Amino acid sequence: MMFYHTSVMLEEVISQLAVKRDGIYFDGTLGGGGHSLEIMKRGGRLVATDLDGDAIQYADALFRTEGMDGKYTLVRDNFKNFVNISDKLGIEKYDGAILDLGVSSHQFDDGERGFSYRFDAELDMRMDRRQDLTAKEVVNNYPPSELLRILYEYGEESFAKNIVANIIKERANAPIETTGRLAKIISDSVPYRKGGHPAKKTFQAIRIEVNDELNGLGNAVRDILRRLAVGGRLCVITFHSLEDKAVKSVMREMAADCICDKSLPCVCGHKAEIKIIKTNVKATKEETEINSRSKSASLRVAEKL
Ligand SMILES: C[S@@+](CC[C@H](N)C(=O)[O-])C[C@H]1O[C@@H](n2cnc3c(N)ncnc32)[C@H](O)[C@@H]1O
Fold first, then answer.
1. Is the CB of 102 under 6 A from ligand 1?
2. 97 CB less than 6 Å from ligand 1?
3. Does the CB atom of residue 100 touch ligand 1 within 6 A?
4. Is the shortest distance between the CB of 52 and ligand 1 below 6 Å?
5. What confidence tens digit (pLDDT) does each residue in 158-187 have?
6. Cα angle for residues 133, 139, 141 (degrees, 5° grid)
7. pTM over 0.85
8. How many Å lie between the centroid of ligand 1 and the Cα of residue 99?
9. Sign, CA torsion 100/103/104/105
10. Ordered domains of the chain (ranges, CATH)
11. Which residues contact 219 (CB under 8 A, 6 or more apart)?
């Protein structure tokens, strides 16, 4: 089979999940199916979602080749619809779950998908190619104030003003239709950047907007944790600080016995629903040497009480 994606922190995740034979596990970000396959190899049953039809097709073929027929259900949907998906399948509780956020190597490396400044392609960046909003639409039709917000908020781009000013100027001449042209506009707007391509932050910001990656992430983490059986664990791998902040904040709140202002006596009656098992676990040096993508990964693990 073709190369799709190298799973990040695979052994750590699998050991944290302590997969039970015939337990039911949820993988919200199927990708190349690496985490999912290991869960099934240990006797777990699987429900997995992905927005990307390529991921569903690839993983389905992989699981069949590995003799996993009958052990899994793949749903092409957003994991943020977890409650609905589980209700429809009649699953009340899961024994564990994983979210390995962001994009897969396949999405990045397939020039046609328009995610990367490394290939000149139509500006697209959709995980789900059924949706209408593309990167081309964002770059050419969003008002300057929205573009600025996205670059600051999702890209933490300090040259956002220059970049947006040049996008607005250039798109008035002719629509910006390709990753190559956008990358050139950005490179010309950024005076100097240490480490990484000058377009890296802007491309990340536009991708987050196109796929609406941050809205509802915290709620999805809460929904999944609430539907774990006692002792069940959720592993979340994030790749940038904004994702991590959303996950951390929900886990901290759900693990607290009180959410009142610390200086006041407790009146909230809040009870911890989970316990935090691991925070900010990084890939080992050996893994980062083999898989550079794992360098920015951070794993959080929480367990249902
Ligand atoms: C980093 S990859 C997952 C890799 C996978 N764990 C593996 O071992 O191969 C992330 C995948 O999640 C999908 N994805 C990202 N956000 C999603 C969402 N909100 N709902 C469903 N799928 C999503 C992407 O399309 C991509 O295929």
1. yes
2. no
3. yes
4. yes
5. 999 999 999 999 999 999 999 999 999 999
6. 75
7. yes
8. 8
9. negative
10. 10-102+215-304 (3.40.50.150), 111-210 (1.10.150.170)
11. 80, 250
